[in-house]
Design brief:
about 35% strand, D-Maltodextrin-Binding Protein, domain 2, seven-stranded mixed β-sheet, binds adenosine-5'-triphosphate, five-stranded mixed β-sheet, binds magnesium ion, alpha+beta
Length: about 290
C-alpha cells in the first residue's frame, strides 16, 4: 500500500509556507498545525506533507523522496539549469500564482550604470550563482561572482562586492541599503514540481490532486456576480457578461425585474460593473468563488 500515498514537500517556515498550506486547505487537505511534525499525514486524502527548507525541495522531489513539491521557480532554476538534478528529471507542472518576486541586478545609487556592460570585471554578490552565471554568459559579460548565503544587500556597503544580484519584491530593501535596481533578470513565483519518475500506482492520486488544484486556482481569478435588472436590460447584460456558458436569469417577485447570476474574471470586474450599472443593474453583489469545475 506504500505506493498509494503521495508525498508533497513544502517550505517548513518562511514566505511560501502560509500560501502553500492555504492551497492545500482550499483543496480539502487539512493538516492540524498544532500537531505538526517533520512529516504529517492528511486526514482526508492519501497524502503526507514533508516540511523542508525551500533550498532542499527541488532535489528531494527530483530524487523521488517526495513525489511533489511547492517551491519558488528561483530555487528550481538555481538547482537545475537543464530540467534535471543529479541526473533525475524534475518537472514543473503548475504555476501557482503566489510568491511572486524577481531576481535583479542592483548597484549603489551613485553608480553610472546604464547597461549590462558596466558589470564587466565587477564583483557581484548573490545567493543565486547559477542563475547569474547563466545570465552573464548569455550577454557575454565576465564578472566575479561572490556567493553569499544571506543579507546580500549589505555586500556593497561592506566592500565585499560592487553590485548584488538578489530577490526583489517591492524594492524597499534596496532603497534602504542605498542601492538601485538596474536589471530585472529572473521572474519567479511558486510552482508545483513533480518527480519525473512518479510510480505508475500514484498517477491516479496525482490526477485527482491536480483536478482539485486547478479548480481552486481557476476560482481565485473569478468572482460571482449577482444583480437585479429591469427586463429591457437583459439582452445587453448577457452581452456584457457572457459568463461560463451563459448567465442565469431568474424572475424577481417584483413585476418586470430579474436577477442575473454570472461568474466573471476578477481582472474585468470593475469595468463590467460600470457597464452593468450604466444599463440599469441594481443591488450588485460580488462574491468569492470557492471552487470552479468547468
Ligand atoms: P528557508 O528557511 O526555507 O531556506 P529562505 O529564507 O531561503 O527559507 P524565504 O525568504 O522564506 O526563503 O523565501 C522563500 C521563497 O519565497 C523565495 O525563494 C522566493 O521564491 C519567494 N519570495 C517571494 N517574495 C520574496 C521576497 N520579497 N523576498 C524573498 N523571497 C521571496
Ligand atoms: Mg532557503
Amino acid at each position: 500500500m506504500e505506493n498509494s500515498l503521495l508525498r508533497i514537500a513544502i517550505q517548513a517556515k518562511g514566505r511560501l509556507n502560509e500560501d502553500s498550506m492555504a492551497l492545500l486547505r482550499d483543496i480539502g487537505i487539512k493538516i492540524d498545525e498544532s500537531k505538526r511534525k517533520f512529516l504529517a499525514q492528511a486526514p482526508d486524502f492519501p497524502l503526507e506533507v514533508l516540511y523542508l527548507r525551500d533550498d532542499d525541495i527541488p532535489q528531494v522531489v527530483a530524487a523521488g523522496t517526495a513525489d511533489l513539491g511547492i517551491v519558488g521557480l528561483n530555487e528550481v532554476a538555481e538547482n537545475s539549469t537543464d530540467g534535471t538534478i543529479d541526473g533525475s528529471p524534475l518537472q514543473i507542472i503548475r504555476e501557482l500564482g503566489f510568491g511572486q518576486c524577481r531576481i535583479s541586478l542592483a548597484v549603489p545609487k551613485a553608480e553610472p550604470c546604464d547597461s549590462p556592460a558596466w558589470f564587466e570585471g565587477k564583483r557581484i554578490a548573490t545567493s543565486y550563482p547559477n542563475i547569474l552565471r547563466h545570465y552573464l554568459s548569455g550577454i557575454g559579460v565576465n564578472a566575479l561572482i561572490e556567493v553569499i548565503a544571506g543579507s546580500v544587500e549589505v555586500a556593497p556597503a561592506a566592500g565585499i562586492a560592487d553590485a548584488i544580484f538578489d530577490i526583489v519584491s517591492s524594492g524597499g530593501t534596496l532603497v534602504s541599503n542605498g542601492l538601485k535596481e538596474v536589471e530585472k533578470v529572473f521572474h519567479s513565483q511558486a510552482v508545483l514540481v513533480a518527480c519525473g519518475q512518479l510510480p505508475a500506482a500514484k498517477q491516479p492520486l496525482l490526477d485527482e490532486l491536480l483536478f482539485r488544484i486547478d479548480s481552486a486556482l481557476v476560482s481565485r481569478q473569478k468572482k460571482y456576480l449577482v444583480m437585479n435588472l429591469p427586463q429591457e436590460a437583459i439582452e445587453q447584460a448577457v452581452r456584457i457578461v457572457p459568463a461560463m456558458r451563459s448567465p442565469t436569469i431568474m424572475p424577481l417577485a417584483a413585476q418586470g425585474w430579474y436577477a442575473m447570476h454570472a461568474v466573471i474574471e476578477e481582472s474585468q470586474l470593475w469595468e463590467k460593473i460600470r457597464q452593468l450599472k450604466a444599463i440599469g443593474a441594481e443591488g450588485i453583489l460580488v462574491l468569492n468563488t470557492d471552487k470552479i469545475i468547468p
